[in-house]
Design goal:
The two termini are about 30 Å apart. It is built from eleven helices and nine strands. The chain folds into three domains: about 170 residues, Jelly Rolls; about 50 residues; about 55 residues, Homeodomain-like (Arc Repressor Mutant, subunit A), CATH 1.10.10.60. The protein has a six-stranded antiparallel beta sheet with strand order 1-2-8-3-6-9. The longest helix has 21 residues.
């Protein structure tokens, strides 16, 4: 029944499904920069979805604040909340997406917000921050489905639901520190806009050697101290740490395509092979060369107890 409903998705011409099961469907979504959907009010279709962006995009869910979605996020799409997308990357939009039945999502979210069981929408938030391990988990599951001709459906569904649980945890349990309140609402909007502007800048030039002055000049954000404080309040992360995550997650895509480690390190902005390998291993708990082989072979790591 779930698989049948997914077949009716109006965006199917853009979707490349690698798995459709009763409890989870997995696909790679692509939309060209000249597609009419950029100017339209969009709907996710008949099933809620969690999308992990491969290319950055600006998302504005109806009733929520707009945000820049990059590889550090999972976008939460609710069937009852239309949205608009805005172009950031000149190549368009691309994401690895997981679709789940609404009742499955409700159960996952209710572990952190019991009101979700009876709410009109299964997702009251627009996005979730994604840890390094959660990012790696969804990327490994996609590679497994893409490259293996025979898969164990039970294992695939359990991995998919574990990813959903991680997304719900990131969105609801690990609540970011609220931005410092101001007497003037327009000041709050300015600070939010500044932080999102920094995110968009980093998403577009993460491989470059940036300074805080560069960021300030590009965003009109004032002093370096002000930039750092506003960004951390809004995202929960320092600017450099956020940038490092973007670089490493871009590297995962390149390694999955077979690019040599040294070339990958240089192209995503690291000064040396050794520095890249050290930072990569500390973030992902695996060497980049080993991860690249695992992704190309479609190996699926066992779930941790």
């Amino acid at each position: 029944m779930f698989g049948h409903s997914l077949d009716a998705d109006k965006d199917a011409r853009h979707d490349d499904y690698v798995h459709v099961g009763r409890n989870v469907a997995v696909l790679r979504f692509r939309i060209r920069p000249d597609d009419a959907q950029w100017a339209a009010l969009n709907s996710v279709g008949p099933a809620p979805a969690v999308a992990f962006p491969v290319r950055p995009v600006r998302i504005h869910h109806e009733g929520l604040e707009p945000f820049v979605a990059d590889a550090n996020h999972a976008i939460l799409f609710d069937t009852e909340r239309p949205y608009r997308r805005s172009l950031i990357d000149g190549e368009g939009a691309e994401a690895i997406s997981f679709k789940f039945p609404a009742e499955v999502v409700r159960e996952a979210v209710a572990q952190h917000d019991p009101r979700a069981r009876d709410a009109a929408r299964v997702f009251e938030r627009g996005f979730s921050r994604v840890s390094s391990q959660l990012f790696l988990h969804q990327r490994q599951l996609y590679a497994h489905l893409l490259r293996r001709s025979a898969v164990d459906p039970l294992a695939v569904e359990e991995h998919g639901l574990t990813i959903l649980a991680g997304v719900a945890h990131g969105a609801y349990a690990q609540r970011r520190r609220p931005m410092r309140r101001s007497a003037a609402p327009e000041t709050e909007a300015y600070r939010r806009g500044l932080a999102e502007g920094i995110k968009e800048l980093l998403a577009g030039c993460f491989s470059e050697r940036l300074t805080l002055d560069d960021v300030s000049d590009a965003t009109g954000g004032g002093s370096p101290f002000h930039l750092c404080r506003v960004f951390r309040e809004h995202t929960g992360a320092p600017i450099h740490s956020y940038l490092t995550d973007l670089r490493l997650r871009a590297a995962v895509e390149r390694l999955a395509d077979g690019e040599p480690v040294g070339r990958t390190a240089a192209r995503v902005g690291f000064v040396s092979h050794s520095h890249f390998t050290d930072v990569f291993r500390r973030r992902f708990e695996v060497l980049p060369s080993r991860l690249g082989r695992a992704l190309r072979g479609g190996q699926l790591a066992p779930l941790r107890a």
